[in-house]
Design brief:
alpha/beta, Gyrase A, domain 2, Rossmann fold, 4-stranded antiparallel β-sheet, 4-stranded parallel β-sheet, globular
């Protein structure tokens, strides 16, 4: 149950009765316990518009509201804040519900475009944010009952592959280490820039590939298979839910590109500019008010990523029947997506009823505030980052855990290493840059994955000592202690948090929720005996622990982070 939405609806109705027109209640979780559990601050904005006293308006709204069975206490504070304290019976009834998560009343068909590496090179740290943020959002929306179509729009076509295949001709290709191809790609790029004959050979390969010549396609497929297997190994290590079925790269749209250009022309959107075919929309202008073009076909007949992205959008509308399409890329592509969405709607490739959303993110920085790179300035391969995370996690676990056997030790190390990498990213507002710091992300204290994983393991240890099965444990909950009550309130906020993440594509809200849940559980655990409590209290508190563990496990799973029974 979304408690916040329920309160918003009840108070919103009351605002309507009092003001004779709809007005927002603006309900949000209270920032401090003394403000109750929730706080509504719509009275100030509405009173200003109606030129009336906000406190008097808030009092009238509370008097007109139907909060029976939900709220035990209301208080008007400050200039017109409405503080709401949930009733014990409502909390107990909400926790007694069988479903932890209520599916969306109107589920949507949602496409999420994320990760999107270039298969000419190995996955590197620059792909991390798109991959983990997109994956966490996809998992959350899926949990809410939406139909998800993950789309890994890989770069698997064009000039980079012509350069690589031309360079690799005659080279020893027996190695399956994709790291070699990163080196080859750098050499091929340099030669492409400085050797006209080599550049011509590479371009000829691209022409052969685009025209479907068998020899070129065979060479291309061999390289793509090798690069794809490397990519999937990294995804599996990072517990990313992408798999080969979700891969639909640039090559998949090659045969559609000419039709895209034709249809843009028939829609009256195409213009010629220095021999190239472009779309100019009046809302996009550059310096001195000059119109900005979206280039869809070069003067030599070649197509661009704008063209491919339009073809992909049309596929996602016509074939996948998407109601909503989300893209996760860094903020530098803002203009591209604004133009892409505008052209897609203007051309009617996608109806305006389909929601098109670009969700950008900031940069990953080192301790000096510069882009996160290796000591020699090169981009760090993700495989290397994962390996380093395991090395550091191994040292941390060895210093804290002495009772794990070899298999358990390796499982704990892997879970902590991957969890730390992902949570450090996901816990930050994606719009901001963030600094990569091994020490803080592997800490067992504070807002980190190890802290949450340790809390879950601690609850499992309690279950083991009590010798009972949490899966079949169903007991009534009494909330006589303030720490019990605060924990219960936080558990009841899970649904609204998931819906917020799904709506805004902001996984840091879920991280903040889980951290607060864990902090409240730790306070409860330290002040309220569980196994040693009198029978009635013991049963209720064990039930609270069951709810906490299930919520924590489900929330971490939305983030793609594993839980542990022992640490």
């Amino acid at each position: 149950m979304n408690v916040r939405q329920l309160l918003d609806e009840r108070l919103g109705e009351a605002f309507g009765r009092v003001t004779k027109e709809w007005a927002p209640a603006l309900v949000s979780p209270a920032s401090r316990p003394e403000y109750g559990d929730y706080q509504a601050n719509g009275a100030m904005a509405v009173a200003k518009r109606l030129k009336t006293n906000p406190r008097k308006l808030a009092e009238d709204v509370v008097g007109a509201s139907d909060l029976t069975g939900i709220v035990a206490e209301t208080e008007i504070a400050g200039p017109g804040f409405i503080n709401l304290t949930l009733s014990q019976e409502f909390l107990k009834g909400t926790l007694a519900r069988a479903q932890l998560v209520t599916p969306a009343a109107k589920p949507e068909r949602i496409v999420i475009d994320y990760s999107s590496p270039n298969l000419a090179k190995s996955l590197h740290v620059g792909h991390l944010r798109s991959t983990v943020i997109g994956d966490a959002t996809a998992r959350t929306l899926e949990l809410l009952g939406h139909t998800l179509y993950r789309q890994n729009h890989i770069g698997d076509w064009g000039t980079p592959f012509g350069m690589l295949v031309a360079y690799l001709e005659g080279q020893d290709q027996s190695s399956n280490d994709l790291g070699d191809f990163d080196h080859f790609y750098a050499l091929a790029s340099e030669r492409f820039e400085n050797d006209p004959a080599f550049a011509e050979t590479a371009r000829k390969f691209v022409v052969d590939l685009q025209s479907g010549k068998e020899a070129a396609l065979t060479q291309w497929k061999q390289f793509i298979e090798l690069s794809s297997s490397h990519m999937q190994r990294i995804y599996d290590q990072l517990n990313i839910s992408l798999n080969p079925d979700h891969t639909r790269g640039e090559s998949a749209y090659n045969n559609d590109l000419a039709q895209v250009v034709t249809d843009l022309d028939q829609a009256g959107l195409l213009s010629l500019s220095d021999g190239a075919k472009c779309v100019f929309l009046k809302e996009f202008t550059g310096k001195e008010g000059k119109p900005l073009p979206m280039l869809v076909q070069k003067s030599d007949g070649g197509y661009l990523y704008h063209t491919t992205d339009l073809a992909a959008l049309r596929y996602r509308h016509k074939v996948l029947n998407a109601d909503r399409i989300l893209y996760f890329t860094d903020g530098r592509q803002n203009l591209h997506f604004r133009m892409l969405f505008a052209v897609a709607h203007a051309s009617e490739f996608v109806p305006k009823s389909t929601k098109l959303e670009h969700h950008p993110f900031g940069k990953l920085l080192d301790s000096t505030g510069r882009p996160f790179r290796s000591r020699d300035g090169s981009t760090i391969p993700l495989a290397q980052l994962v390996e380093q995370a395991h090395e550091r996690a191994r040292a941390v676990v060895r210093s804290k855990s002495s009772n794990l056997d070899e298999i358990e030790f390796d499982e704990v190390v892997h879970a902590i290493a991957i969890g730390a990498i992902k949570y450090a990213d996901l816990s930050k507002n994606r719009l901001n840059d963030y600094t990569f710091d091994w020490d803080s992300m592997l800490a067992f204290e504070g807002n980190t994955a190890p802290y949450l994983q340790y809390a879950f393991a601690r609850i499992q240890s309690l279950f083991a000592r009590g010798n009972f099965d949490p899966e079949s444990y169903r007991k009534d909950i009494t909330l006589e202690n303030q720490n019990e009550r605060e924990l219960a309130v936080q558990i009841c906020r899970f649904q609204e948090t998931l819906e917020l993440v799904g709506r805004e594509a902001m996984p840091h809200h879920l991280c903040a929720y889980l951290y607060e849940l864990t902090s409240r559980f730790m306070r409860f655990y330290e002040t309220c005996p569980v196994l040693d409590a009198p029978e009635k209290d013991r049963e209720s508190r064990l039930a609270l622990c069951v709810h906490t563990a299930k919520t924590l496990e489900t929330g971490l799973d939305c983030l793609g982070i594993a839980t542990l029974t022992r640490m």
